[in-house]
Amino acid sequence: MSTVKIKSVWMDSACCDKQGMGIALDVDLDNGASMMVYLDSKAGEPSFTDILNGKYRAKPKTDGERVYWENGASLSFQEMIDMLQAEKRARAAG
């Protein structure tokens, strides 16, 4: 069974507010699929504060397994899937 790898990533902050809410990662996968992952749920985590405030916003990188920033913040592929599922559950409940 082959594992899906992250091919590229960039941040989309076009719809974010002044507190950095609404910032999304646009993640392209090597199987041709892509996903948009909003970072709002990470607002309370210290490693994401600088990202949401703009300091590292335009600098995400990938090693194929995770997305990471210069300040040490990172998200694995599975974490991003979990975030998407949690967002879907919240919308369904809401």
Number of strands: 6
Low-pLDDT stretches: none
Biggest sheet strand order reads 1-2-3
Order of helices and strands: EEEHEEEH
What structural class should be given to the helix and strand makeup?
alpha+beta
Biggest sheet architecture: 3 strands, antiparallel
For the termini, the CA-CA separation is 36 Å
User: Taking Cα atoms only, what radius of gyration do you get, to the nearest Å?
Assistant: 13 Å
Count every helix, treating DSSP H or I runs of 4 or more residues as helices. Answer: 2
Mean of pLDDT: 88
Helix content: 25-40%
DSSP strand (E) fraction?
25-35%
Report on the structure:
With 94 residues, this protein is an alpha+beta fold. The strands form 2 sheets. Strands 1-2-3 form a 3-stranded antiparallel β-sheet, covered by helices on one side. The chain has a 3-stranded antiparallel β-sheet with strand order 4-5-6. The chain has helices spanning 46-52, 77-93, and strands at residues 6-12, 24-29, 34-38, 61-62, 66-68, 74-76. A hairpin with a 3-residue loop joins β4 and β5 (66-68). It contains 2 helices and 6 strands. The model has no long low-confidence stretch (mean pLDDT 88).
